[in-house]
Amino acid sequence: MGNNMKANGLTLKKMNSMVDFFDDKPVNELKTIVNDTIKHDAFVVAWLDYEVQIGRYQASNFSFYHQNDIDIKHIKQMRIFNINEELFIWRSQNVFKARLRKDNFDNNNKCQHVILAKQVLCGTRFNKVPLNNDSDFTEITEDSGAKLILPFQIDCLQTNDKIINRVLIQTHNYLSPNAIHQATYIDCRFVSFICNDKELK
User: Fold this and answer.
1) pLDDT in tens, 3-29
2) CA 119 to CA 43: how far, in whole Å?
3) Which of 85, 98, 170, 194 sits CB 3.0–4.6 Å from 102 for a disulfide?
């Protein structure tokens, strides 16, 4: 690891990283790809044709609010991630493509510059009461009607209707020089959920 440099709320860091790609996998092989690559507990963000679902991947199984699986045929994109790795999957016509990226990989030849950033999730209010007596999920909402259901309990958003913090997604954004030696973004991965500078688990 190299030294950190902070500017404009972003952190520039040197990091060892490894990337691998999987092309044109049949839809029915998606779970095999995930099981073969992700060996540790992870979060899942899935963009479906009709909604965004956020859940967990544990012991080779998906779990989402109200269901213990995912409708594969409706997946547009999916990110399965933890602190050390992310499997990014996207649909291309009738097949899936995927990218696996692992950080802190012990190979000095793979050292590159990474910008650490945070993305704010919509949701300024949250439901402290467990949804349907399920204590593992929290609903966050906006006045506009936007809603997300997160696979953990949180108590860091507001006090007496005053917004204190927001739920964020920590991201790693990878840089590499282009043909004219200008640094440009070549990849981005999700790392963790955070609130009030604390990792949510």
Assistant:
1) 566 656 789 988 889 999 998 999 889
2) 16
3) 85
